[in-house]
Every structure is written in structure tokens, then in C-alpha cells.
């Protein structure tokens, strides 16, 4: 798959647990890490960067604190509603949102849109 195309491959849909999340590092060293959340055949994506601290939200590479469709940042405990556009619903950046990234699912593959 051509990683330099306008729709670069991120992962296979089945790599993201249904109802869960997956962290994806960018194919280029200048890019930002992503957080992908799956519900059935739909995938939403955000930058894996907390608006409060500016740091990655995983507690170890690719491992996140997720419960009841809410992701908690491992750095300062900000909690984001994954079904509500990444809105922070608790913690130090309440009311702010994660930065959304457009993705699409095509033929079982998750791609940048």
C-alpha cells in the first residue's frame, strides 16, 4: 500500500477491537500519533494528544484507559467521550475536545480521508 498517497493506510479494521481503541503511529516521522475508536464498521479518529498537557494519552505505547466509551488520559486524568466527538467531560480540560482526524473504512482497511 502506498503510504505517500492522499489516503494512506492506517490499519485493518479487524485490528481495532469492536468498541475499543487502537493507537497508530504515523508513517512519517513528522506526523502525529493517532487514536482510532471503532463501533462496528465505523471508525473515528483523533490526534493522540491531550489538549491539556500536549502529551500522548496512552499509558504505554498503544495502551489506553477506556471504559464505557470514555478514554482517560494517563497523564492528568482528563476524560474524553469517544461517542461525542472527543469532548472532555471530566478533568483539567473539561469542555475542550480532542483534535479530530478524518478517516474512512474501505474494503476492511482504515485510511486517512
Structure description:
- The strands form three sheets. A four-stranded antiparallel sheet has the order 2-3-4-9, with no helix packed on it.
- It is built from no helices and eleven strands.
- It has a single domain, classed as Rieske [2Fe-2S] iron-sulphur domain (Rieske Iron-sulfur Protein).
- It is mainly beta.
- The protein is 0% helix and 38% strand.
Brief rundown of the structure:
The protein is mostly beta strands. Helix content is 0%, strand content 38%.
Total of helices: 0
Label the structural class: mainly beta
Low-confidence segments, ≥5 residues, pLDDT <50?
A: 1-5
Please compute the radius of gyration using only Cα atoms: 13 Å
Secondary-structure arrangement, i.e. CATH architecture: 3-layer Sandwich
CATH fold label: Rieske Iron-sulfur Protein
* Helix content estimate: under 10%
Quaternary: single chain
Distance between the termini: 15 Å
Overall geometry: globular
Give the helices and strands, then pairings.
Elements lengths: L8 E4 L8 E4 L9 E6 L2 E6 L17 E3 L2 E3 L6 E3 L5 E4 L9 E2 L1 E4 L2 E4 L1
Antiparallel strand pairs: 1-11, 2-3, 3-4, 4-9, 5-6, 6-7, 7-8, 10-11
Essential attributes:
mainly beta, disordered N terminus, Rieske Iron-sulfur Protein, single chain, 4-stranded antiparallel β-sheet, 113 residues
Amino acid at each position: 500500500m502506498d503510504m505517500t498517497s492522499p489516503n494512506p493506510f492506517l490499519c485493518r479494521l479487524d485490528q481495532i477491537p469492536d468498541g475499543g481503541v487502537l493507537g497508530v503511529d504515523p508513517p512519517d516521522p513528522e506526523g502525529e500519533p493517532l487514536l482510532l475508536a471503532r463501533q462496528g464498521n465505523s471508525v473515528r479518529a483523533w490526534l493522540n494528544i491531550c489538549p491539556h498537557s500536549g502529551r500522548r494519552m496512552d499509558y504505554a505505547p498503544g495502551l489506553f484507559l477506556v471504559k464505557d466509551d470514555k478514554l482517560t488520559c494517563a497523564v492528568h486524568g482528563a476524560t474524553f467521550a469517544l461517542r461525542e466527538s472527543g469532548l472532555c467531560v471530566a478533568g483539567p480540560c473539561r469542555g475542550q475536545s480532542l483534535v479530530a482526524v478524518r478517516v474512512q473504512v474501505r474494503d476492511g482497511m482504515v485510511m486517512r480521508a
